[in-house]
Amino acid sequence: APVRPQGLLDGLDPDQRAAAEHDSGPLLIVAGPGTGKTRTLTHRIAYLVAERGVRPQECLAITFTRRAAEELRERLAALLPDRAGQMTVTTLHGLGALILREQHERAGLGARFGIADEARRLEVAAEVAGSEAEGRRLLARRGEGPDDGTGDEETARFEARLRELDLVDFADLLRLPVRLLSAEEELAARYRARWPWISVDEYQDVDETQYALLRLLTSPDSNLTAIGDPDQAIYGFRGADVGFFLRFAEDYPSARSVQLTRNYRSNATIVDAAVQAIAPASLVPGRALRAVGDFRDPPRIGVHVAADERAEASFVARAIDRLLGGTSLHSLDSGRVTEDGDDTLSFGDICVLYRTDAQSGAIISAFNSAGIPFQKRSHDRLLARPGVRALAAEIPHHPEGPLTGRVRAAVEALCARHAEDPDQVVDLRSAGELAAPLAERCGADLPEFLSALALGAEVDALDPRADRVSLLTLHAAKGLEYPVVFLAGCEDGILPFRFPGAERGDEAEERRLFFVGITRARQRLYLSRARVRARRGAAADMAASPFLGAIDPALTMPVDEESATRRRPRGRQLRLM
Ligand code: ATP
Ligand code: MG
């Protein structure tokens, strides 16, 4: 029998283990949410290195967000403390940046080229196009799509101007490497030889350019492990194409496919509701998903109907307050609500999900009045600050770096300390001696720190360790899990989303978003909606989301603030239902 390092694969079930132990050649892991895809990926990489003599430098693991990359690095470091640091764990944009850094001369870039964030990109576009409005139109035409050579004269001038400034934008991070590797087969072959073991998480959401890059980095019989769930494809609106996932077996004909059907994340009520919700639009024939986690006596899914969005937000705030034992609103008698009698819930265990960022305002006000600590994406604002931007644009970037939430926290702290008006005063460049210790505090060198600033994405602004309620769009919630989830705005027009007066959008993708939202919850799920909501400045009557209708009423129960906050008699566990 093969010798296995004690415990390395012990935490996997037989299907997961089969995937982790898969020999060489392409592998497709297709599985629903919470079935341990990401966990299996981590263990597979560790197993290959610890057991199969694969060199860590030969492993390339690609995740969807920087935060996911950070988490993967941490988990790999826990399994292989000595060798995890030698692996390349990054996002596709990070990978593009790494290749460009190495091949900068071929790409016509300086050794220290900068990465333009959205604000800088718009500045350059406005300069080329003559006004900010025209600049925006230029950027929309350029898009992030594949390099089809149809760019108009103005977008060509935009690119030329970026090159003059020795800048690349996010689209370039993928397009330029694809251009380089397609033009020079020998170069592509070198990269293929460098990373013979590639794994890609969330493969259902790759777009055409990303797909092209992956194809260049692999051959049809490569050791490529692709992991994903077509029913969680939610980035079609910006060019992702689940078709690449669905045709994996054609692109990699020797591929073996493994399905995982046991959901460890959520209790049976949540899993059943999720399966019902996705059924009308499932892209996975015969989708199987069943709860196997150790959850006793799962509560029903709470459904709350509020008069308006303020009332909805106040419901969420009060329910959270009550879940945590009233510590934030008022000091009531006893201790906190516990899960199964032992774990104590805290703010960090809770997330509030919504379809559109506009919904967060009401929730933030309610949280501020209730004294509930929260964290929300703030990356965009952060990078828009002139000082941070100046710094990020002028100092060379390093494509790697395990920093996300910590970087943000450090910069926020810096801003708070040194700036009354953060937009004015915090110029990290002129405060050069500040920036280096700051990077140090984050455990990184300066280029790494700056690169982290430039490459951050929405979800990356979250610090997984902070004891705060997370406020997230449904898109940003991909891959994450929380013991308690509130999904706000379950209304027709919000979820599925539709601009007021506009045609229906991609309703199947909206349903998949709903599915993603539900399946973030481990123990408790609340679906709320408002009867009236301000839309484009006017009060609109809102009907319930048609997606709610797919869930068997036996799995849900109406909750109002009263029942959500009523305490049970002593001796019994409080359960929000
Ligand atoms: P998503 O589609 O949402 O990304 P996923 O398939 O990647 O989900 P993971 O995040 O890897 O799922 O796992 C979900 C949860 O289940 C995690 O908390 C993980 O630790 C747990 N889990 C997975 N496999 C097992 C197992 N064999 N035993 C115990 N817990 C497990
Ligand atoms: Mg995952």
Automatic annotation (TrEMBL):
<dbReference type="GO" id="GO:0003677">
    <property type="term" value="F:DNA binding"/>
</dbReference>
<keyword id="KW-0547">Nucleotide-binding</keyword>
<dbReference type="GO" id="GO:0005829">
    <property type="term" value="C:cytosol"/>
</dbReference>
<keyword id="KW-0067">ATP-binding</keyword>
<dbReference type="GO" id="GO:0016887">
    <property type="term" value="F:ATP hydrolysis activity"/>
</dbReference>
<dbReference type="GO" id="GO:0005524">
    <property type="term" value="F:ATP binding"/>
</dbReference>
<feature type="binding site">
    <location>
        <begin position="31"/>
        <end position="38"/>
    </location>
    <ligand>
        <name>ATP</name>
    </ligand>
</feature>
<keyword id="KW-0413">Isomerase</keyword>
<dbReference type="GO" id="GO:0033202">
    <property type="term" value="C:DNA helicase complex"/>
</dbReference>
<comment type="similarity">
    <text>Belongs to the helicase family. UvrD subfamily.</text>
</comment>
<dbReference type="GO" id="GO:0000725">
    <property type="term" value="P:recombinational repair"/>
</dbReference>
<feature type="domain" description="UvrD-like helicase ATP-binding">
    <location>
        <begin position="10"/>
        <end position="267"/>
    </location>
</feature>
<keyword id="KW-0378">Hydrolase</keyword>
<keyword id="KW-0347">Helicase</keyword>
<feature type="domain" description="UvrD-like helicase C-terminal">
    <location>
        <begin position="268"/>
        <end position="577"/>
    </location>
</feature>
<protein>
    <recommendedName>
        <fullName>DNA 3'-5' helicase</fullName>
        <ecNumber>5.6.2.4</ecNumber>
    </recommendedName>
</protein>
<dbReference type="GO" id="GO:0043138">
    <property type="term" value="F:3'-5' DNA helicase activity"/>
</dbReference>
